[in-house]
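Extended Data, panel c. Modelled sequence:
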Amino acid sequence: MALTDRQQKLLDLLKANGGWMRQQDLARALGKDRLSLEDATALDRLADHGLVIMEIADDLAPGGETVRYRFSQPKVRT
């Protein structure tokens, strides 16, 4: 999969963080108040291709669901 600049930037942020990042944390790291639709779509595509892990939890946010992401370590083939 060839990554777009947006996908690469998001993936680099997740790799550098080394753990889970909520949507609002990613937005802040990008200098935004919230993720754009394009950012969310890029993250969905990264998750579809197994490059990030996406978790949706409705127990973390009192007003709704929380979506968080982390870099998916590539599997080493032996």
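The mean pLDDT is 88. This feature is highlighted in the accompanying rendering.
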